Amino acid sequence: MARDAHSRLVGWLKVILPLSALAILSTLFLVARTVDPDAAIPYSDVEIAERLREPRMTAPTLAGVTRDGATITVTAAEARPAEEAGTSASSVRARLETPDGAHTALSAGQAQVDADGTTVTLDAGVLVSNSAGYEMKTTAMRLRLDTTEARSDGPVEGFGPPGRIEAGGMAVTEAPGAPGQYVLVFNGGVRLIYQPRNP
Fold first, then answer.
1. Higher confidence at residue 116 or residue 23?
2. CATH number of the structural domain 57-194
């Protein structure tokens, strides 16, 4: 008799459970809101016409790996074709991570990617932050995309572990004659104001 009761229960569940599932699904479809096609378009006719007239990309990201294994990521608020060749971008941030674990972050008001896509020139005020503890600023920097090299186009100034630094130029690059080792180099008349840290 217990076996018969069990068989009846299983038989009822085979009917009740699928019917319950159908009822739940039909309720979801009935309650779901309809989609307004006009509301799904975030741009007005004027904005669409402007974008067709002046092509641009919003929040683009460029990422790659150099020949020596460093990773580079460049992001911007907006990018568009440059007047002469290549691409120009605004509100740019870049990050260079070398295989030895060090990293350098750069931010700039604008940047240009050259036509062959091997160099990004950051300008309109460039801030450089290095994992070794250096915080520098300069007017412009060139960041290579095919090999590890970030080099200033003019004087730099800022702070590092030794103190305040002023120099005619600065570069992050692979150490000459030492593959796999990366250095931050100041050159062009370096002035250091030593400021020892309190213990």
1. 116
2. 2.60.450.10
